[in-house]
Amino acid sequence: xxxxxxxxxxxxxxxxxxxxxxxxxxxxxxxxxxxxxxxxxxxxxxxxxxxxxxxxxxxxxxxxxxxxxxxxxxxxxxxxxxxxxxxxxxxxxxxxxxxxxxxxxxxxxxxxxxxxxxxxxxxxxxxxxxxxxxxxxxxxxxxxxxxxxxxxxxxxxxxxxxxxxxxxxxxxxxxxxxxxxxxxxxxxxxxxxxxxxxxxxxxxxxxxxxxxxx
Length: 214
Prior knowledge:
single chain, 214 residues, alpha+beta, NADH Oxidase, two-stranded antiparallel sheet, 6 strands
């Protein structure tokens, strides 16, 4: 079980900068309120399974093949904050859009922190292996449609209520699926960044001359 006690405010502020929101005293008060609300409503859950490589089920495109090159095993994982976070943001969008944006930023930070904790759990279990970073459907040429297959393999709809919509987007929205490679041998630290991101043409960070951190 993963519990979130505090959220990375500097990361949330960076997301808000990407949304064009300026910080001031009033915004600081709103951030205090929104962080507390996200921590109260978040119900982090995660699943993962180990796969022996090669595994055709998780392959699609050149990028994932490069990502897993030299790995003997792969970890397929998913994580979610739960449906209450979506409901919280959706209600705020009706009555207070500024609050909704701040809630969304903190929720994005929260799900990333959950994924980081999952990384730590997996790294501890597979001590002695080198592990790649998370690579998700939608990165580069990795088909986003694979999310549906991943959730089926993880039995995520039944176990943690994580599904996709008709466009293969995760529901609840503050959720992640990803693949990580494991190898007994040293792994080349492959480059992450805008070049492999499917949001590069419409990213609010790039428009503001910033970077999301991937």
